[in-house]
């Protein structure tokens, strides 16, 4: 079952679902979703003279991205073909009986802005800001302003709560993240990690 605005408000009031700060519920809570705003931090992928990125090399990934922080009142220009990691302004906490789906807003989609490449899911138990995988598929640069509504979350209720939710007990790599996070794929079991 997908949660309606009434369901979302009830869960927020109960405190088991967290979206904070939720500064303007009348605007941010939609009929079946919650609009999330763009944060100030971005990780930009640098043009590098390397043959490829090896997912098991943390150093290569770290050398490939550069952090940019946009000052209050500033804007981030997303050029055609660019791919950057951004973050939501809000921090979320998803209870064990819900799954959250990160979706783009249609108004930005009509400007050719995509908010996630593949990672459009927040597992039960996830807590933290959400890293956005921002791309411009269009032919003109688009100005993104921190604080603008950039994405929306929809919530689906699970038939039963997750037995092993996302979190510290599982060693989940992105639990509690603040700001955009680069890939931590080198922590996956197939690359010698424990996940």
Automatic annotation (TrEMBL):
Which positions are annotated as binding dCTP?
A: 105-110, 123, 131-133, 152, 166, 173, 177
Kindly report, in one word, the top-level EC class recorded for this enzyme.
hydrolase
**What pathway does the UniProt record associate with this protein?**
Pyrimidine metabolism; dUMP biosynthesis; dUMP from dCTP (dUTP route): step 1/2
Q: Does the keyword Hydrolase apply?
A: yes
Entry's Gene Ontology BP terms? dUMP biosynthetic process; dUTP biosynthetic process; nucleobase-containing small molecule interconversion
Q: Which reaction does it catalyse?
A: dCTP + H2O + H(+) = dUTP + NH4(+)
Q: Where is the active site?
A: 133
Q: Which UniProt keywords are present, listed alphabetically?
A: Hydrolase, Nucleotide metabolism, Nucleotide-binding
Q: Which Pfam families match?
A: DCD
Here the segments flagged for biased composition (Polar residues) are 174-184
EC assignment: the record states 3.5.4.13
* GO molecular function per UniProt: dCTP deaminase activity; nucleotide binding
Which HAMAP family has this protein been placed in? dCTP_deaminase
Looking up PANTHER family in the UniProt record yields: DCTP DEAMINASE
Subunit structure, briefly?
Answer: Homotrimer.
Give a short account of what the protein does.
Catalyzes the deamination of dCTP to dUTP.
What name does this protein carry?
dCTP deaminase
Query: Per the UniProt entry, what species is this protein from, by scientific name?
Result: Haloarcula japonica (strain ATCC 49778 / DSM 6131 / JCM 7785 / NBRC 101032 / NCIMB 13157 / TR-1)
């Amino acid at each position: 079952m997908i949660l309606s605005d009434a369901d979302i408000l009830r869960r927020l009031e109960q405190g088991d679902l967290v979206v904070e700060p939720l500064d303007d519920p009348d605007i941010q809570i939609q009929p079946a979703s919650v609009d999330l705003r763009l944060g100030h931090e971005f990780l930009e992928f640098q043009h590098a003279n390397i043959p490829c990125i090896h997912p098991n090399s943390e150093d290569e990934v770290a050398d490939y991205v550069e952090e940019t922080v946009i000052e209050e009142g500033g804007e981030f220009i997303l050029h055609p073909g660019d791919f950057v990691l951004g973050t939501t302004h809000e921090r979320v906490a998803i209870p064990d009986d819900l799954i959250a789906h990160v979706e783009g807003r249609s108004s930005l989609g009509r400007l050719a802005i995509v908010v996630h490449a593949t990672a459009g899911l927040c597992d039960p138990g996830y807590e933290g800001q959400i890293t956005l995988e921002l791309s411009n598929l269009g032919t003109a640069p688009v100005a993104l302003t921190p604080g603008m509504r950039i994405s929306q979350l929809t919530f689906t209720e699970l038939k039963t709560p997750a037995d092993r939710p996302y979190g510290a007990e599982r060693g989940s790599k992105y639990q509690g993240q603040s700001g955009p996070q680069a890939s931590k794929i080198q922590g996956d079991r197939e690359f010698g990690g424990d996940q």
